[in-house]
């Protein structure tokens, strides 16, 4: 059994742990306790309102999601980390302003972050073990029923903004989060107070008005949910608002004034792959399923499958300027075996013809 640490030793260990995390490529490391009472009540209210849509997994574990010590018995502290992912210092608006191009959320342009950060967390845990011997831990990266943003907020990594993303005053919000649940009695870090003030830029810019109130998101209207998590047809009334966004949406982050402090990622795995930062809609809808699986290997995009990929691209082409090339690209998929894909293709073809008739 490992002997108990006195307060001085615990503080020294926490300082060393943070240094090891930074050396491994995390931009910040913070420590918090397991209590999430306020976040738990907000979660329950959100679920009761049905704002999670068809993300049944959000409700499946109930209160356990907000109780880390029940998820991993013996947990005393959570070591929370963040890692920058933005591929460039400032967002280039050219993609969103060109309806012929496809917009992919910045986090998904490179390799899937889950494996990279999980491996980094394992190396982090190994480094701690080398110094203090075996200890109880479990690593999480956007996995299992873990409330990563409230934990990171309590650990002093930032505050949850009105768009429900975590904001750091020196790094904006373009970063991933990860956690080590541990049985180490480490000293706690101090949470930051919110600095959103009277700003409402994220609420005003949301294309589908998914941020229904400060700090409250209705996922059923959110483009990220609709293009990634939602398994069925995208609601007709919301399709025009998607524009050319085919995987996720970054609008609320792009307008956040704190992102003027964001830094470009140092991780080459997070840099754009397969030309996804400049691809056209017609090029991407031309990928058959084998091509889709090959081009999205190692990418977070792969998990939505080829059917949803075509669904999203059909909506984007339905919103694009009319062209013979778009009609040809869409017509190729009219006999797709998935009725959801066929319905979106037919909708897009009808929109292309309506635009053409109107403009002609």
Architecture blueprint of SSEs:
Blueprint: H1 7-23, E1 28-32, H2 37-48, H3 57-60, H4 68-71, E2 77-84, H5 94-97, E3 103-104, H6 113-132, E4 137-140, H7 148-154, E5 159-160, E6 166-167, E7 175-182, H8 201-205, E8 211-213, E9 216-217, H9 223-229, H10 239-242, E10 245-247, H11 251-254, H12 281-285, H13 289-295, H14 305-319, H15 324-331, H16 339-359
Organism: Marichromatium purpuratum 984
Active site: 142 (proton donor)
Subunit structure: Monomer.
Brief overview:
The chain has helices spanning 7-23, 37-48, 57-60, 68-71, 94-97, 113-132, 148-154, 201-205, 223-229, 239-242, 251-254, 281-285, 289-295, 305-319, 324-331, 339-359, and strands at residues 28-32, 77-84, 103-104, 137-140, 159-160, 166-167, 175-182, 211-213, 216-217, 245-247.
As a whole number of angstroms, the C-alpha radius of gyration is 22 Å
Given as residue ranges, the uncertain stretches (5+ residues, pLDDT < 50) are none
Output mean pLDDT. Answer: 94
Strand tally, please?
10
Number of continuous helical runs? 16
Give the N-terminus to C-terminus distance in angstroms.
Answer: 80 Å
Order of helices and strands: HEHHHEHEHEHEEEHEEHHEHHHHHH
| Global structural class | alpha+beta
EC number: 1.17.99.6
Binding site for cob(II)alamin: 65, 142, 166, 177, 224, 249-250
Domain 4Fe-4S ferredoxin-type: 184-216
InterPro entries: 4Fe4S_Fe-S-bd (IPR017896), 4Fe4S_Fe_S_CS (IPR017900), QueG (IPR004453), QueG_DUF1730 (IPR013542)
